[in-house]
Specification:
By secondary structure, this protein is mainly alpha-helical. 79% of the residues lie in helices and 0% in strands. It is built from 9 helices and no strands.
């Protein structure tokens, strides 16, 4: 299994570059179609996108082994929530890659009578579950960091308690709003300011959160749960691919357990 893990690690950057090119073609095809480009040129872009997709699947052969190894390592995490989110997330990634490998075999002609639509839907379901767990892990880490930030700043704790007790209600212009709404608005502003500071001070978490949020729209659209269209899917896929490449080029940006 270890040789497969090493192979997957070496091919990850190439796969991400192909992914960026594939979703750039998706976005380009949508833009050209909206602007009335010739059918021949549109067919060429669509064919290039299909070739890039098939090439990516070849690079992902064996990635299930890497995901299973990551799940085995995550089992030993001390935090129960992180252990659950990361372990189950990697297991879903392993199933996603397994379905993707079977889909590659079908599109490459090795399994000619395979139901490609069924396996594509299965792979996107596992991909969606993995992304939901990844976003849950990001949200949990954000909450932990926000609590740590508040506990380490007496002035922040004082402001929060003052909001809870209504101490700042008189400082906010009434504007026809009740004191409870004024306290709620002030509390929301304080939380947003705290969230901004936490994310600004933790670039790996910010990058992972943005990447997972962009990726989420892809399976939602493919499964028909939230249709956004090829243009938006292409934009999200391109953005998340660039963020992934940044994490590969600068390992310190990769979120660690």
């Amino acid at each position: 299994m270890e040789p497969w893990v090493r192979f997957s690690a070496q091919s990850q950057a190439k796969e991400r570059a192909l992914r960026a090119a594939q979703y750039a073609c998706t976005l380009l095809g949508y833009t050209l179609r909206k602007n009335g480009a010739s059918p021949g040129f549109l067919a060429s872009v669509t064919q290039l996108e299909a070739h890039l997709s098939l090439g990516r699947k070849l690079f992902r052969l064996g990635n299930s082994a890497e995901a299973l190894e990551a799940a085995k390592r995550a089992i030993h995490l001390s935090d129960v929530v992180l252990r659950f989110c990361i372990t189950v997330g990697h297991l879903n990634r392993a199933m996603y890659f397994a379905c993707d490998n079977i889909l590659w075999a079908g599109r490459a002609g090795l399994v000619p009578h395979m139901d490609q639509e069924k396996w594509s839907q299965r792979s996107f379901r596992y991909y969606l579950f993995a992304l939901i767990l990844n976003l849950s892990r990001d949200a949990y880490e954000v909450r932990l960091l926000m609590e740590r930030e508040v506990n380490g700043r007496p002035s922040q704790k004082t402001a929060a308690s003052s909001v809870a007790s209504g101490g700042h209600a008189s400082e906010v212009p009434a504007g026809g709003r009740s004191p409870s709404l004024q306290r709620l608005a002030l509390r929301v502003r304080l939380q947003l300011r705290l969230l901004s500071r936490v994310l600004r001070n933790n670039p790996p978490l910010l990058l992972d959160l943005a990447k997972n949020a962009c990726d989420l729209f892809i399976p939602l659209d493919k499964l028909g749960l939230y249709k956004t269209g090829p243009g938006f899917v292409g934009l999200c896929g391109l953005a998340s691919s660039v963020l992934s490449i940044l994490a590969i080029l600068h390992p310190w940006l990769k979120l660690k357990p």
